[in-house]
Amino acid sequence: MARIDLQNLAHSYVPKPSGPGDYALKPLDHVWRQGGAYALLGPSGCGKTTLLNIISGLLVPSEGRVLFDGRDVTALPTEARNIAQVFQFPVVYDTMTVYENLAFPLRNRGLRGPAVDARVREIAELLDLTPDLKHRGSGLTADAKQKISLGRGLVRPDVAAILFDEPLTVIDPHLKWELRSKLKALHRALDLTMIYVTHDQTEAMTFADTVVVMHDGAVVQMGRPQELFERPAHVFVGHFIGSPGMNVLPATVYGRSAHVGGHEIRLARGYPPIDAGRVEIGVRPEFATLAPAGSGVPVRVRRIDDLGRVRLAKVELAGIPMAATVPEAMPLVGDEASLTFEREMVHVYADGHLVEGEAA
Amino acid sequence: MLRARIVLGLYIGFLLLPIYWLVNMSLKTNSEIVSGLTLWPHTLTFENYTKIFTDPSWYSGYINSLQYVALNTVLSIALALPAAYAFSRYRFVGDKHLFFWLLSNRMAPPAVFALPFFNLYSAIGLFDTPFAVALAHCLFNVPLAVWILEGFMSGVPREIDETAYLDGYGFPHFFVKIFTPLVASGIGVTAFFCFMFSWVELLLARTLTSVDTKPIAATMTRTVSAAGMDWGLLAAAGVLTIVPGALVIWFVRNYIAKGFALGRV
């Protein structure tokens, strides 16, 4: 039950960092509000776990401060922070029974008697662990063990936050779905702050209210899943989220139009001349629709992939490969076609970062 | 299948033959031993054992040996537990070199250290005490214990440590209540190895003691009397020397192979 502030936080595993390249986590300011369900999304090695370990106190940041409800905890050891973390692989105290495992964090907080019992039984019930309560942890399956790990995180009612570090990696796919919805339900029921680290966008999108996308030690965008999808703040977010990712095309942008290889694409907003090394437009395949030749920007169709629910066309626009949606009714004749874009969904990027246009 | 059993049976019989012969001898009288070959004791006697258990010069040898062996085992494990934890969990400058250097201590013959130990312990008044032998044996038992325990500890995931902190345990609590039970089998195996090496070591034990704490192995080398060699008594002492090792090995029988691999599987 706490708001967590990160102030000017940075971490480097090198003792004397000489440049930005030495930082595993680049300076960042961030507020995790009480009761939020967050997902930290990014590829392996982007600093997600580093950030998590700093919040839980397993790692002392090289710079900056961590505040819990305004109290500086940067120098406080993990055991004094009242925080829970669930790791990628199940951690169960083999020498204790499942019940004792779940009661352990409560007893360490000085709770005794019926209060402990009630809480342990409640959590065990939520996680379907009740039949196993009397058993030793060592003989259980990997997913039962991971449920115990989750349970130990969830059991403290006053915990500052629960951090999940890719907790469903070892779980079978069909149970994964179930456990994830269970976590979501628990979040609603218990009003806890949860931070969920993952490199799986589906996991992040389904679990979290707010998704924080990290790349190369920095937060590149933070927002609701829909925002990340519709308005990626960085071409990396566009690539990383969505399957397939956003199309990024080198372009020259002036005013309300972009030119890609001599073809004009109309934009929803007006742009001043952009002074940057690399100017691109980004549009998701979902917002670029294939149309019969002559009704939009001309493209050459390379291949059509039938994904069951939708059909995706691999096309070339002025020699640049990209993907587009094929409408259901559209007949395909030859490889000449054209593209129409949803104007609101075409974004302009300068050196990878989104450029805000001026609405007319 | 049958052939395998026969081969295995022969092998075990072959291994057990000297032990059987020792037990056989210990139950015979001296006259039967020297008079000729008998496959089992014709004149069964427990005289030899009775002598060992009643004569202080004999049984005190066992007590002395057990004293320094137990002391050494406790010392070695107490020192090796934190050291092994540090080697398995932390990275520091020269850690790998230090770790290997520890093992290289085992490569020097103990005889090399007999003289310095003798001189040092005489000077500080430790000579002829159980502490002298126990400390001297730490020389080769602590490195061994560190190596075995490090292997077992590295098999325990680091996340256990972190989870215990997250669940509100400080380091001392965690180490004693969570971590030590998790490596209990490793500690058992390590204790066995320390026990065994200290138990069978003769040179340092004999050099560093004279009268009060003479180890059993030293007592056994002095059985020649005016009446000649007391074969039966010596055999009985030999049997009793095997017993403690056999007892200890029983407790760690399931983990002993892992121990021989220094805790690495």
What would your notes on this structure say?
The complex is a heterodimer of chains A (360) and B (265). With 360 residues, chain A is of the alpha+beta class. Chain A has two domains: 230 residues, Rossmann fold (3-Layer(aba) Sandwich); 109 residues, OB fold (Dihydrolipoamide Acetyltransferase, E2P) (Beta Barrel). In chain A, 23% of the residues lie in helices and 35% in strands. Chain A contains eight helices and 21 strands. Chain A has a six-stranded mixed sheet with strand order 6-7-8-3-9-10, with helices on both faces. In chain A, strands 15-19-16-17-18 form a five-stranded antiparallel sheet, with no helix packed on it. The longest helix of chain A is centred in the middle third of the chain and has 18 residues. The radius of gyration of chain A is 24 Å and the shape is elongated. The model of chain A has no long low-confidence stretch (mean pLDDT 86). The mean pLDDT of chain B is 88. Chain B has a two-stranded antiparallel sheet. Chain B starts with a helix and ends in a 5-residue tail after the last helix. In chain B, helix 4 crosses helix 10. Chain B has 265 residues and is mainly α. Chain B is globular, with a radius of gyration of 22 Å. Chain B contains 14 helices and two strands. At the A-B interface, helix 2 and helix 4 of A face helix 8 and helix 9 of B.
